Amino acid sequence: MAGLNLGIAGAGLLGRLLAWRLAREGHRVTVFDPAPHAGARGAAGWTAAGMLSPVAELECANAQTAQRGLRSIELWSQVVPCLPQPVDFRRAGSLLVAHRSDLGAAQRVLDVFSAQSPADTAPPRRLSTQQLHELEPAVLGPAAAWLLPQEAQIHTVQAMDALADAAAQLGVAWRWGEAVRRVEPHRLDDHTFDRVFDVRGLGARPELPLRGEGHGFTPQLRGEGHGFTPQLRGVRGEILWVHAPGLVLRRPLRLLHPRLRVYLVPRPGDIVVVGASEIESEDRSPISVRTLLNLLSAAHSVLPELAEGRVVHTEVNLRPALPDNLPAIETQAGLTRINGLFRHGWLLAPALVEEALHDAGLGAGLWKESA
Ligand SMILES: Cc1cc2nc3c(=O)[nH]c(=O)nc-3n(C[C@H](O)[C@H](O)[C@H](O)COP(=O)(O)OP(=O)(O)OC[C@H]3O[C@@H](n4cnc5c(N)ncnc54)[C@H](O)[C@@H]3O)c2cc1C
User: Fold this and answer.
1) Cα of 236 from ligand 1 centre, angstroms
2) Mutation choice for ligand 1 from 31, 325, 330, 343, CB with most ligand atoms inside 8 A
3) Are 38 and 176 in contact (CB under 8 A)?
4) CB-based burial of residue 243 (10 Å sphere; 0-12 exposed, 13-18 middle, 19+ buried)?
5) Domain 5-359's class?
6) Res 367: pLDDT
7) Position 208 confidence tier, pLDDT thresholds 50, 70, 90
8) Domain boundaries, the chain
9) What is the three-class DSSP state of 368?
10) Model confidence over 256-312: pLDDT tens digits?
11) Residues 98, 255: contact at Cβ < 8 Å?
12) In angstroms, rounded to a whole number, what is the distance separating the alpha carbons of residues 5 and 194?
């Protein structure tokens, strides 16, 4: 089925990936977003560190997320080489590390991994001090380290830019500065399409449908005297970039800690991304002193060289989340909605897009085969 007229509400991570994918299939695609231009950084997709951690995220996800994550890593490895500009994508695994005082908490997390991991997942491999030094000489201080060999990372800023450029080259019409207020089957506001996609992230909140159990989106609940309480919520995430010339970190590193979830992600240009807080709040104000202290002291405790780095950027955004913190796809005639990607958007987007297009009768199998 080629040559359909398709409309997309939202040009964040999902919107860009969908637009590019559908245009490659030969469809006419129009994308609406209130952002003033392709490089305006409102979408959560820009802020993300780009950890692709199907196993490490089992601490706050389920086996299906891990399976979709493994699938997405495979799909990103096919997407990235097709993009018109370079996107830093690495499949060198990731490291988990723990200090001696936190080994009990670390073991509990490792037990969750082994209980939840899908069958085809490689388990965490315990590293000796010598092996850790050979893999990551700059990492000093942790009492224990494990390698998760199937994990990966993607440079989210490069990928957001490259997906928009690639889609534009394929003829996608970007309607910047245009918010969609009403999404219905075949319609985005007053525009008519063969099918429409609602991927507005948190921007979809006013319109989330009332659905029964088992259909992805959960019913909205009535608040106490305040009308409907929306079920989609934003979860505040704060992140910072450190410029640390000379510091060599080859793969993402996660500190297993009883209270904090702290990770470090290397990027080209001697940048280390340190993230991220997870706060039940929709406050978009700048990063707090508490978060800066927590993230940087935890990061410095395993990567001492970071002390000489410079904090060159901080960013705050909201993760779109449903009550169970799991993603949902809804397919009906003329309309597909995908939302609730929470802290796993980059980990899940290709697999979710693949499933959603298949459900809508638009999907080819492997992305490479149709390239
Ligand atoms: C600090 C932080 C760190 C993260 N780290 C990771 C990570 O390491 N790995 C990972 O996998 N995920 C990570 N994430 C999560 C990831 O960023 C999100 O899950 C993902 O961006 C969600 O994608 P989306 O397309 O649904 O939403 P978004 O990327 O937010 O895009 C939504 C788009 O819809 C547009 N929109 C809003 N309202 C309207 C409207 N009315 N009409 C039209 N368009 C509209 C917005 O302008 C935006 O462009 C992180 C998130 C944060 C905040």
Assistant:
1) 12
2) 343
3) yes
4) middle
5) alpha beta
6) 59
7) low
8) 5-359
9) coil
10) 988 888 999 999 999 999 999 999 999 999 999 999 999 999 999 999 999 999 999
11) yes
12) 5
Cα 35 to ligand 1 centroid, rounded to whole Å: 13
In angstroms, the CA 14 to CA 17 distance is 5
**If DSSP states are collapsed to H, E and C, what string results for 207-267?**
HCCCCCCCCCCCCCEECCCCCEECCCEEEEEEEEEEECCCCCCCCCEEEECCCCEEEEEEE
Nearest residue by C-alpha to atom 49 in ligand 1: 12
Burial class, 214, CB count within 10 angstroms (exposed 0-12 / middle 13-18 / buried 19+): exposed
Lowest-confidence pick of 37-46, 145-154, 190-199, 201-210: 201-210
pLDDT confidence of 230, banded at 50, 70, 90? low
Number of H helices, E strands in the chain: 8, 22
**Is ligand 1 within 6 A of the CB of residue 291?**
no
Residue 78 structure tokens: 């096919």
* CB contact at 8 A, 129 and 285: no
